[in-house]
Specification:
With 393 residues, this protein is of the alpha+beta class. It folds into 2 domains: 164 residues, Threonyl-trna Synthetase, Chain A, domain 2 (Threonyl-tRNA Synthetase, Chain A, domain 2), CATH 3.30.980.10; 221 residues, BirA Bifunctional Protein, domain 2, CATH 3.30.930.10. It has 12 helices and 17 strands. It has an 8-stranded mixed β-sheet with strand order 10-11-12-17-16-15-13-14, with helices on both faces. It has a 4-stranded antiparallel β-sheet with strand order 1-2-7-6, sandwiched between helices. The chain has a 3-stranded antiparallel β-sheet with strand order 3-4-5. Helix 3 runs antiparallel to helix 4 and helix 9 packs across helix 10. The C terminus is likely disordered.
């Protein structure tokens, strides 16, 4: 049976084919497929209404019945860009900048796209699906989202979750409670929200770590390193996101990063301690989570695998552009959001970069959505002693 990612990647390409057929003023830009669903962005040359989703859905169903094959091909970036230039100039630009010597492409009828994912053999293999959201982004971009399941009952259950999530949208909830306002993709914190943020920040401060203030935190930590010293540093910083989405993914997110230089013989102990600290934060907040080990290329990184195994938690493995461990939290729609991450680097001694909170705005969004924000009890900062007891239990 094909994976959910394979099914959703196939739906994503089919959506890109169907939407311009229904509304020729929609120009495909790019899409993404996830375990929880799929989405595609279009440039809208004229206005469109949400009712267009029904028409696109009918066109996708017609294409599914036609059993159109999904074809794979590959080219070097320059050839791929030239090949796509007359057909789809936007995809040609992406192909020219593709970060690899080979660009994986797919073809469904007369539509071509960059496609590193596996696809189904034909459109006929796509089961029950639904397009459930049309959103308007800056620069006349329209995003269409959908999901597919093996049977209609599971699809119906998920669509109910989507409606429930809309009723608990954290953006209007944060504004109503005078916590955060969203302005041009960025969060503006109000006094009451700042108090909650301070409580969350207290969770992300580990005993023994010294605060630093550097324009570039990683470079700053390297300069502060001194042999024979206890080289543990942290800093409150900001992270930038290219694809803002409400409070879950603000354009400029507030974050905390930690750096720990350690001796090689202490590396696994420090890795486990950092992972336990990441886990401790979401456990206190009552957020459902999972660990994901991301590996680049043919990397195996046995030290990260060993640390996760010793921690005794289940984890998924996936290929990525970088090698690191991420902790993902789930929203009401079942979407997985990175909440923290750990990267292992090698300087004169091993260096662990741990980001226990990637985005305080994202944490607030999850807590608001669940309705558990007011239940936070974090007057005291958890200690490493409680952390080690929790790890050994």
């Amino acid at each position: 049976m094909p994976s959910r990612l394979t099914v959703h990647a196939s739906c994503e390409k089919l959506l890109a084919l169907a939407a311009p057929t229904v509304l020729p003023t929609l120009v495909p830009i790019k899409g993404e497929a996830y375990d929880w669903g799929f989405e595609y962005d279009f440039y809208a040359q004229s206005s469109c209404e949400e009712g267009v989703l029904l028409l696109i859905t009918e066109e996708m169903r017609r294409l599914i019945q036609a059993a159109i094959p999904f074809e794979h091909m590959s080219m070097v970036p320059q050839n791929a860009a030239q090949f796509l230039q007359k057909k789809q100039p936007i995809q040609a630009e992406f192909a020219a900048e593709y970060p690899s010597n080979v660009v994986p492409l797919c073809k469904v009828r007369d539509f071509y796209d960059i496609c590193p994912e596996e696809l189904l053999e034909t459109t006929r293999q796509i089961g029950p699906f639904a397009l459930y959201e049309l959103s308007f982004l800056p620069d006349s971009i329209v995003r269409i989202r959908g999901v597919a399941f093996d049977d209609k009952k599971m699809l119906k259950t998920y669509l109910k979750q989507v409606e429930q999530a809309k009723e608990h949208d954290p953006v209007p909830l944060a504004e109503k409670k005078e916590l955060i306002s969203l302005v041009d993709g960025n969060a503006v914190w109000h006094p009451k929200g700042i108090e909650y943020k301070k409580r969350l920040e207290s969770l992300a401060i580990r005993p023994g770590f010294k605060e630093m203030f550097c324009i570039e935190p990683l470079d700053g930590a390297k300069k502060l390193y001194k042999p024979q010293n206890d080289n543990r540093f942290y800093q409150q910083t900001t992270r930038y996101n290219d694809d803002p989405e409400g409070l879950f993914n603000v354009e400029t997110a507030l974050s905390t990063v930690q750096y720990c230089f350690c001796l090689p013989q202490k590396l696994e102990e420090e890795l486990i301690s950092s992972l336990q600290f990441m886990k401790q934060i979401v456990s206190i907040l009552g957020i459902e989570y999972t660990f994901v080990l991301l590996l680049r290329g043919k990397d195996k990184e046995p030290r990260l695998v060993s640390a996760l195994t010793s921690l005794g938690v289940p984890f998924e493995t996936s290929r990525s552009n970088s090698t690191q461990i991420e902790l993902h939290g789930f929203d009401l729609r079942g979407r997985a959001w990175p909440l923290s991450k750990l990267t292992l680097m090698y300087e004169s001694v091993p260096l662990i970069e741990c980001v226990p909170v990637l985005s305080y705005e994202r944490l607030m969004a999850l807590l608001l959505e669940k309705g558990t924000l007011e239940q936070m009890k974090m007057e005291e900062n958890p200690t490493l002693e409680s952390e080690s007891r929790d790890s050994s239990s």
